[in-house]
Design goal:
The chain is mostly helical. The protein contains eight helices and six strands, in the order ααβαααββαββαβα.
């Protein structure tokens, strides 16, 4: 299962392998790093004859090494998105680390990032709706009426005449994008809540 709400957010914060590792964590209540490696590498292996044939034609996907997964787990731990439980193996004497996601922090990350994007879009929408904007034919930075008046309705970038910008399309786009982000926020949180409830049942 892929948690799309986190993928784009995490890619901005870290790397692709860490995104994959976090998605595996979200699908398990508790898991060790070796099992994560197996899941990631099995997921990229061919399962049908068609896939096998395609695999022969193309270069096989590179396998993810244990050290890469551990590096990603440490990154998630540093960001307080994952925690571990250390247990000593009675037979080998080595410590085994059991990893699990920190749901509250993951929810907080989604909310903060989405709300930050929504805030910027709403500010832009308010600006577009409250101001008559003027722009040159080349589309350089639009300015308000008062600024255009001070400039003598001449673009400071290219010297062309400034005329009133028709921003109905921009306003419509911004409203649609805001609705889309609001829906994505709710969907992402519902998705995580549903998984937490499922994991609670199997404890």
């Amino acid at each position: 299962m892929s948690f799309s709400q986190l993928n784009d957010i995490m890619l901005k914060l870290t790397d692709e392998v860490t995104v994959q590792v976090l998605n595996v964590l979200l699908g398990h209540r508790e898991i060790i790093d070796e099992e994560i490696v197996n899941i990631l590498n099995e997921g990229s292996s061919p399962e049908t004859e068609e896939n096998i044939e395609q695999e022969i034609k193309e270069e096989p996907a590179p396998r993810i090494a244990l050290k890469e997964v551990r590096k990603s787990l440490y990154k998630l731990n540093e960001r307080s998105l994952a925690r571990y439980r250390r247990v000593r193996d009675r037979e080998t004497g080595y410590f085994v680390y059991y990893w699990s996601p920190i749901w509250e922090r993951i929810r907080d990350l989604i909310v903060r990032r989405r709300k930050s994007s929504l805030k910027k879009l709403r500010q832009r929408l308010d600006y577009e709706e409250r101001n008559l904007l003027y722009v040159c034919a080349s589309g350089h930075n639009p300015v308000t009426f008062s600024d255009a008046f001070e400039l003598g309705f001449i673009c400071t970038t290219c010297g062309e005449e400034l005329s009133q910008k028709e921003n109905a399309q921009t306003i419509h786009f911004l409203k649609e994008k805001i609705q889309e982000l609001e829906k994505e926020l709710k969907t992402g949180l519902d998705e995580l809540d549903g998984l937490v409830e499922l994991q609670e049942k199997v404890k």
